[in-house]
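User: structure tokens for this one?
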Amino acid sequence: MEQGGQAGGLGNLRALLAILQWWGFNVTVIIINKWIFQKLDFKFPLTVSCVHFICSSIGAYIAIHVLKAKPLIEVEPEDRWKRIFPMSFVFCINIVLGNISLRYIPVSFMQTIKSFTPATTVILQWLVWSKYFDWRIWASLVPIVGGILVTSITELSFNMFGFCAAMVGCLATSTKTILAESLLHGYKFDSINTVYYMAPFATMILALPAMLLEGGGVVNWFYTHDSVVSALVIIIGSGVLAFCLNFSIFYVIHSTTAVTFNVAGNLKVAVAVLVSWLIFRNPISAMNAIGCAITLVGCTFYGYVRHLISQQQTASPGSPRTSQTNSPRSRMEMLPLVGDKQEKV
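Assistant:
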């Protein structure tokens, strides 16, 4: 009994440390990227994204082949182009749009908009793939949509281009999650192997557009910026931390339960918003803060509903609802995909 208590205590401590390091890497990457765009005046999101992809490619290679942190999941050469490349393209768009939005809007607003991803995932699966969901899933999206509307209307530093980039980024995240179900069927990828295969493709996709669209500006920045060396250390450091963030996601997924992961993910957004406000002091109105809070509560409720429905389906695998897979009634019980969280459900 005593040993069981000690094991439980160690498990809780491990989960707490996993969550804290995940929060730390995530918030640090977001803040450094915003610092690069705002304080270093390095206003080149494509180049920053390319640096992140290069660092992630190198980091994933070291993690798998040198540190042996995870075994390499072998992928057939044909599958790399038919399956991995399309995923990498969407992955690339997702990261680039995130950095573009961060270039134009505050961290608090950008993070709140990213919380809209569950809604875009459900809507895309319903419209494009004709999947049906339990009414509780739709009901749980109401506070998310309402919170985003309140936040957008009351945002004091609103920028239409940054807002659109963040919204399309949500669609790209949802598309990547949905495509992973079909394109990566048969492969049990973790976050490290995902980066190992996708980051090199993403670098290849983005390198030419970055040089053509931002190359001249980057060269000019080198000649006009006062402290180039220290700035480069920060830019490359952000790329290293971006890879560490992927590693931390792998750690936290395997150290926490689905419910804990969901709640911690939403609290992470709140931490990022608070830290960014303390550093950059962007104006936030009371209604804006309320809208952000409503969105985060909605995301937590959405995660709880998903978990509840998943538990109900697991408890009654032989029921008519789950056995008649072709009926609309059974399809209504299908759960929307949720990116990294799908490993936990």
